[in-house]
Amino acid sequence: MDRNPFYGEDFYCEIPRTFRHLSFYIFDRDVFRRDSIIGKVAIQKEDLQKYHNRDTWFQLQHVDADSEVQGKVHLELRLSEVITDTGVVCHKLATRYKERDMKEITVSFGVPRAAHCEWAISEAKKTKVKKKTNNPHFDEVFYFEVTRPSSYNKKSHFDIEDVDEVDKMEIRVDLWNASNLKFGDEFLGELRLPLKFLRQSSSYEAWYFLQPRDNGNKSLKPDDLGSLRLNVVYTEDHVFSSDYYSPLRDVLLKSADVEPVSASAAHILGEVCREKQEAAIPLVRLFLHYGRIVPFISAIANAEVKRTQDPNTIFRGNSLTSKCIDETMKLAGMHYLQVTLKPIIDEICQVHKPCEIDPVKLKDGENLENNRENLRQYVDRIFTVITKSGVSCPTVMCDIFFSLRESAAKRFQGDLDVRYTAVSSFIFLRFFAPAILSPNLFQLTPHHPDPQTSRTLTLISKTIQTLGSLSKSKSANFKESYMATFYDYFNEQKYADAVKNFLDLISSSGRRDHKSIEQPILLKEGFMIKRAQGRKRFGMKNFKKRWFRLTNHEFTYQKSKGDHPLCSIPIENILAVERLEEESFKMKNMFQVIQPERRVLYIQANNCVEAKDWIDILTKVSQCNKKRLTVYHPSAYLNGHWLCCKATADNTPGCTPCTGGLPANIQLDIDGDRETERIYSLFNLYMPKLEKMQEACGSKSVYDGPEEEEYSTFIIDDPKETYKTLKLIIEGVGNLEQEHAQYKRDKFKKTKYGSQEHPIGDKSFQTYIRQQSEISAHSI
């Protein structure tokens, strides 16, 4: 068992504003896959800023039922003077329990003994049990005698005659979940209130946070449980209405159109942030929300390619471009991963086939050759599902890959492979390989895989990453000799061809201006049978065998391979690709390519698999055409009418909704104002760097000499344009900062400690007493 595990995992989660503690629990899993708790780290909400974005070691705390509390309780306390029949003055406490998230309340009243932290209890009273609710309303009143006259003769734990002794007393409220089990009731939390604050005012009504029980038991020392290193980044945003963000949002969304792009607001954010990932997350979400992600990434990618000197290092660094593309793939490609990898990943996790190929790590009874064969089958299956998944790749990813391919091909015209490696460096190295390696981080599995499965996935990921890299010296990519030996299974041209065909497909459906690249990309070709389209007024509409060819420019057919095309259909003229019902021509495996003016090309594939492949790939390359149809005729127009709906006019609109093929857009739940608020927070945090960048612009504009060292970290291609953008950013951030300051002032004025929204806790109790004292003094 590893007693010093390193996790290295990132988790992003939304948490409610009303939380009190952020807790991390450590478990130990035994050989029977049962989890037993070791300890926890609990950070109070108000302490999170102290540890924000800092690596910190936290001592593990012991976990017990008495410390696991949450929720709040609503109480009203009133201390009254009562005159007895004999004329003696004594004090009584009235306690009213209004509501809470729990089931039963037990109240005790007394004086704490300083020596042992025990309680000398005067009286204990219980509310009625409220069943089947987590938010019970009690509305019960209990009375306690606080001071008694000296003539009182009933024996109790204590007698108090001096009114000043009230200051030493407390009231304790315990909350329990009533249980019918033999183990008894479940403790849910307690509340201890000193009565001295009632001396300020005789009546208080407030909400209180429940606290852990201080029962005097000595738990394990923190050192006995170990410690946990965490880096916690906590951000709390207050989002205004959309119009507040217009100035800053507008300058951000124009980033793709700024020349040079290094002078844009989005690029400047990447320059000033300590980590590129900080900037990439809100930028990508903002641009995705407003449909500007492709032009933005195209602009910054093109600028990065121009600065790259060696094609072998293209997109290899942790630049803003790389981080933005990574984040886009995580958001837009999550469903793509689910449909592509999840079935086989689930099988690997459940079956537990031995796949260890390192002779040193083989377990007793394992056979090296059997393990290699198990691993080879897994790699082959995953490689096949990936390279056959091109038609499912989200459009936004394809558009980005098209831009990367085009920029790389123009920059390094002598390197024919760079158009592939520019794309594979993302889709294989930064998307599929990490998802295979850590499926839990990509929502492919609910938990981190066990050690054996994790090792299998590591070996698969390494092999898939190398297959996708298309490097010329594959064996040299492995430091381990056993991996180089295993890779010999895949040293065949068919694997490289499959990768290139896959990369061609996913990088071919980008912008509609396809002919901006030098050569069309061949996506699919082969013999099929077509019916004459009726381009001539007279003549038989018979069926003929033709060689079909699809590129990202056009769909053509000719008599034989290599002949001059007899017909060419531009991709932008494909309005729909749908199956054709067999009754039309009494022929199976037929589909139709619908063009403008209701012209239809009817085609018969060799088999049902080929028909589906052609329909999928034709739909893929044409799915973003602006004039795509929403309805079509599933049967042919013969003998003066449509066979499906019997309509007689050949230009009658379709009678059946189009299948739609693949989703053209990814629908994401993104709040554009919230992302703009986060970007504002980053600009505000790094304001000193923005001001330093302004100085750098001025220095470069005035002094055209060697760059000063303190300014060398910034990319400034055009000082004047960059300065103008910086001025707009600083102005927009300043205006928002003023709005936030005003909001905080207004909120502080309206904040009332003890309300349901701001319950009283350990640290706020003294604030509450002070606030109430000021109110009382003001009333006097």
Overall description:
The chain has 780 residues and is α+β, with helices and mostly antiparallel strands. Among the domains are: 72-151 and 162-209, Immunoglobulin-like (Sandwich), CATH 2.60.40; 333-507, GTPase Activation - p120gap, domain 1 (GTPase Activation - p120GAP, domain 1); 522-623 and 625-657, Pleckstrin-homology domain (PH domain)/Phosphotyrosine-binding domain (PTB) (PH-domain like, Roll), CATH 2.30.29. A 7-stranded antiparallel beta sheet has the order 16-15-14-13-19-18-17. A 4-stranded antiparallel beta sheet has the order 8-5-4-11, with no helix packed on it. It has a 4-stranded antiparallel beta sheet with strand order 7-6-9-10, with no helix packed on it. Helix 6 (320-332) packs across helix 10. The model is unreliable at 111-121, 150-161 and 775-780 (pLDDT under 50).
Key words describing this protein structure:
Immunoglobulin-like, elongated, GTPase Activation - p120GAP, domain 1, about 35% helix, single chain, PH-domain like, four-stranded antiparallel β-sheet, seven-stranded antiparallel β-sheet, disordered C terminus, 18 helices, about 775 residues, alpha+beta
